[in-house]
Amino acid sequence: SCLITGIKSVFHATSLSDIKPEIASIFIEYKKNEPLKFVSTDSFRLAEKKIPNINPDFNFSLLLPYRSAGEVIRIFNEGDYNLEIILDKNQVLFSANQLLFTSKITEGVFPDYTQIIPHSFTTEVVVNRDLFINTIKEASVFSGRLNDVMMIISKDNDSCEVKTSHSDLGEYESKIPVEIQGEDVSLAFNYNYVLSGLQNISSDKLFIGVNGNSKPMILRGTDDSSYLCIIMPMKNV
Question: What values do phi and psi take at 63, rounded to 5?
């Protein structure tokens, strides 16, 4: 089901805090002649999945609470069947294969996230996805309690250097080949955020876009624009 695909793609970036219920929810939106959109954010990262060629009879948007989203995935994940949703003002009903699940809809307004998605970058990087994932996983073993990993992108060497250190375990440093356009840049990020985002990218090559050391990093597949993940860098690491 495209609904399950969309919910699963962004589930990882949903806020786990109920202080702001609107971001402890997945935003689902459809407008005529546009892709069906799924978006989540915990204010440190954002994930967006677009599924084209879905043509409901009406425009709609809803905020599906995080816990309900987890239940929808658990109940309807198995099997290849059409998952229907029926909406009213306060709740949503999911129905498929004689299974029903009802959830309240979160009240409130999802942040206008489109403003923070950059469309041009001062640094653009293309890297082998599997190599990048394996390097981040290796670095994570040596990461400190903040899960911080440093990435240094150098045009002179056409390389991305991944570094981290732990007071007890020692240091990790590895250079991987990349294609770079633009400026050199270095930034620290939470490796968990990167790895959870990369799980939803199936392209062989990964695009990384950055606008300086203190601006968000955007990740997406080079041949798939349906999914993107934005990650805020860590400061003073």
Answer: -110, 110
**Alpha carbon separation from 36 to 48, 54, 59, 113 (Å, rounded):** 10, 6, 10, 16
The 3-state DSSP composition of the chain as helix, strand, coil percent (nearest 5) reads 20, 40, 40
CA distance 160 to 174: 8
Give CA–CA dist 218/10, Å, rounded. 14
Q: Do residues 113 and 144 touch, judged by C-beta distance below 8 A?
A: no
Q: Are 43 and 15 in contact (CB under 8 A)?
A: yes
Per-residue pLDDT of the chain (237 residues; tens, 9 = 90+): 889 999 999 999 999 998 999 999 999 999 998 999 999 999 999 999 999 988 777 899 999 999 999 999 999 987 777 888 999 989 999 999 889 999 999 999 999 999 889 999 999 999 999 999 999 999 999 998 889 999 999 998 899 999 998 888 889 999 999 999 999 999 999 999 999 999 999 999 999 999 998 899 999 999 999 999 999 999 855
Single-letter code of the amino acid located at 82: N
DSSP-derived pairing of the beta strands 205-210 and 217-221: antiparallel
- Neighbour count for residue 145 (Cβ, 10 Å): 7
Q: What H or E segment, with its residue span, contains residue 181?
A: strand 179-182
Secondary structure class of 8 (helix, strand, coil): helix
